[in-house]
Amino acid sequence: MSTLKAWLFDDRPDTPLQAQLGRVARDVSTLLRDPIALTGLLIVALMAGVAVGATFLPVQDPGFQALSDRLQPPSAAHWFGTDTLGRDIFSRVLSGAWPTLSIVACVLVIVLPFGVLVGITAGLFERLDAPIMRLCDVFMAFPRIILAIAVAVTLSPGISSAIIAIALTGWPSYARIARAEAVTLRHAEFVQAAQVIGASSLRIMFKHILPLCLPSAIVRATLDASSIILITSGLGFLGASVPPPQAEWGAMVAEGRDVIFEAWWVSTMPGIAILTFALGFNLLGDALRNLVDPRS
Hints:
Structural class: mainly alpha
Strand content: under 5%
Number of helices: 11
Largest sheet: none
Order of helices and strands: HHHHHHHHHHH
Helix content: over 70%
Radius of gyration: 23 Å
Number of strands: 0
Shape: flat
């Protein structure tokens, strides 16, 4: 282990692979020493573990209804209490982590590469710059949650509809970031040198520009995850996301709004889950932003 550590942190790497792995190891070491980053990472890892392993945890069936136990306060039998149908809120909060995490992951997998590639294309090819940026302006002119709701209600409720609705409204911010960096890099000496030796535009885009645009895009994605969580919960609150009886945090908050004064836990517990998950991504994103900030 000590040999591997010495190889990774060697100040004079022998190969490009060693240099790249060493850079990653230093960044990871810096993040783990940052209490804010570590807190965010632990929260995200815990929520992801809960989402993936919720079906294997020894908890009650999230769909089991017991009307005789409806609106029971938090207790040893029901840690988070029960809802209006007598379902255990703790098990439903655990079950509701999976649709939220899957929507966040799928949206980021779609919007990050698409937005970055569109932005790089606009930054490298001046003739395409204005049309692409005006299209971004059209999407960004509308509040993101309003546009997502409009798309989601047009489609049938479901995870796929929520993914499409949020992805359609999320790519312009990545395109703008990538475009700004591509405009700066297109006149760089290494890009001009690649053009001189006959490198194609696609090779310059993927080999030289894309690796330099990815760090800021990844930071943006980490910070954007909290917004996606809130939009997902908003769609669920309006009934335009995951259909019942599948547990979803936003829908659970909506179920408890009519009994908020007599049974506060019905809405509060899933609301705390939303807050915690979004906070974890925000803390992690802030730490990543500080790590890649050239002024740091």
